[in-house]
TrEMBL record, chains A, B:
A Pfam family assignment: Peripla_BP_3
PROSITE patterns: HTH_LACI_1, HTH_LACI_2
The keyword Transcription regulation appears for this protein: yes
Statement: the UniProt record of this protein carries the keyword Acetylation: no
PANTHER family associated with the record: HTH-TYPE TRANSCRIPTIONAL REGULATOR GALS, LACI-RELATED TRANSCRIPTIONAL REPRESSOR
Protein name from the UniProt record: Transcriptional regulator, LacI family
Database matches in InterPro entries: HTH_LacI, LacI/GalR-like_sensor, Lambda_DNA-bd_dom_sf, Peripla_BP_I
Molecular function GO labels: DNA-binding transcription factor activity; transcription cis-regulatory region binding
Gene3D superfamilies assigned: 3.40.50.2300, lambda repressor-like DNA-binding domains (1.10.260.40)
Length: 334, 334
DNA sequence: TTGTATGCGTTATCAC
DNA sequence: GTGATAACGCATACAA
């Protein structure tokens, strides 16, 4: 039914092997090259990537596992990964595990059954034994965003602690002392690092780290909303608020609007990754921007490099820097 | 390297064919079945899905093309699709085309080169000639959400006009006459249908359809924000606002909060798909909820059915109903 | 029921 | 350089 390399050979009057060699970039006698090209044109031949995979043990697919399809931070990176790997004709099989460790491991097995040539993993919440099976089969792994500290492989991370430090420092330079943080879940490496930066900044300026200024929003919009509400319901109110991811920032802003708190007059705020509304809402928020495109590009190129068998510099750990986009939500107090 | 069916056969002391048949659910003599199962266990054998695909002409993958990885409405459906098809051991290759028709067609070709067994398409913006190639190759197509009216295939749609009608009717029953709509791009079938319902409702109650109450937000948060701003900047202000998707609703709410407009005292509002904040923001919004899980499930089962060669009822067009979740954002005026 | 042999579309290893 | 041929891992028609 589909036209094969054999059909092309017949049409071109050469052998099957010659066509195969042509397709794989070997040199042919000029005359044959033209005949083969002509035949391919006329027959509309396309290589069968599956058959190719059978021989070469390559599926030309890369498994990408993220927490949740609906997480815009992850999917932004995935967009860049896809753009990068498709250039070399790889496609990605994207899976989410909805925060369920059980499901995550099931997906990792699933991907292995499909002979993915590489794995890009957004998670720190996985048993190393499964990863070892990948290693054993020689399938390269790149970890993105969330680190698994004990696990030795290529990683594309963000300088979370540094980002937090600079955010909090900015508040301190503006004379704030009641600096609250809405952080992600404590078992997340990212959360831990972001908290670490918060703590280090306070300590660097001899300010106390007080539990009343620390709340957890589970990296969700609802969580951020509720945490912000709690902060402003009591008598003891922070003057500065640092929110450590996009969804919680969204939720916190909703809460603040609803409570009719003036930003930055009554509250200074620094958020994270304010994708869609960046330049639109008033007052425009000062946010920490993560280089999602770059992360995806690096992760994509890294996995391609390893798939090709190039293990120079292994393990590469890229720690990318964030950028603070200064807008109008931070005010100096007296 | 990997353990093959041949290894299993040798270990079990049966022929390769016997093992193959076992794997494909044929009956074996009890004694042989046990031997084969034992061998599979001991060797940790796993079928090579790629080799299998070469024979059966099945890739066990389904191509899913959405507009944008970061669109939560689409990804919610995709989550359900994936959950459905993975039960039958299919995986999905998810592509986005970022609103670029050129890129969309490129992706469709890409997926065809990978021998996807089926295609699930979220778009109305594609040349039929490409689809015809799928048809010709016998690859089933299911269209989700956006309809391509001239194109005859299985579809999973939403009763957009009906949803709009009931939303606007609700406003009318509450004595509103200045009913504004923030709609998506006019070239989208979904937009057209949602506008149609808006129009029909007004006409049904002998109210005029006025262009001053119609704005376009391009289905984006920023678009919704800007459109809402425009509505409330002039002297001529609507008393009711209907926003036709999630992102625009988010943006509109931001604008409304920022302008300090009281809901529902000064403005009644009905939005769409208020995923994350549904029960959280105050006043809680009355929204139209689309059955994303169900859409994904139906689309997944439909494509599986067609892949199996079951073309009963073709073409099936499922038009699902939305649900209005009534909360506190609509108020009757005198 | 089972074993044998052939083929799926491609790559790779031979001689030539 | 090129052509013939044997794999890759599996499914299946056929004979037994």
């Amino acid at each position: 039914m589909a036209v094969t390399i054999r059909d092309v050979a017949k049409r071109a009057g050469v052998s099957l092997g010659t066509v195969s060699r042509y397709l794989n970039g070997y040199r042919l006698r000029e005359e044959n090259r033209l005949k083969v090209e002509k035949a391919i044109q006329e027959l509309g031949f396309k290589q069968n990537i599956i058959a190719k995979g059978l021989k070469s043990n390559r599926s030309m697919t890369i498994g990408v596992v993220i927490d949740d399809f609906t997480n815009i931070f992850c999917t932004s990176i995935v967009t860049a990964i896809e753009r990068t790997v498709e250039k070399e004709n790889y496609s990605i099989i994207l899976c989410d595990y909805e925060g369920d460790t059980e499901k995550l491991e099931q997906k990792l097995n699933f991907l292995r059954d499909r002979f993915v040539d590489g794995l890009i993993l957004f998670s720190n919440n996985v048993r190393l034994s499964i990863m070892d099976e990948y290693i054993r089969d020689g399938i390269p792994i790149v970890i993105v965003n969330e680190d698994i500290p004990g696990f030795n492989t290529d990683k594309v991370l963000v300088d979370n602690a540094g980002a937090s430090f600079r955010a909090v420092e900015r508040f301190i330079h503006s004379n704030h002392t009641k600096i609250a943080i809405i952080n992600g879940p404590p078992n997340s490496w990212v959360s831990q690092q972001r908290f670490e930066g918060y703590k280090q900044a306070l300590e660097a300026y001899n300010l106390p780290v007080e539990s009343r200024w620390i709340k957890y929003g589970n990296f969700t919009t609802v969580g951020g909303y509720l945490a912000a509400k709690e902060f402003f319901e009591g008598a003891d109110i922070p003057t500065a608020l640092y929110v450590t991811n996009y969804y919680m920032t969204l939720g916190a802003v909703m809460a603040i609007h609803e409570l009719n708190i003036k930003v930055p007059q009554e509250l200074s705020i620094i958020g994270f990754d304010y994708f869609e509304l960046s330049d639109v809402i008033k007052p425009s928020l000062t946010v920490i921007e993560q280089p999602t495109s770059k992360m995806g590009e690096i992760a994509g190129n890294l996995i391609l490099k390893r798939i090709k068998g190039d293990y120079t510099g292994y393990p590469e750990v890229h720690t990318l820097h964030t950028r603070m986009i200064v807008r109008d939500s931070v005010r100096a107090i007296s």
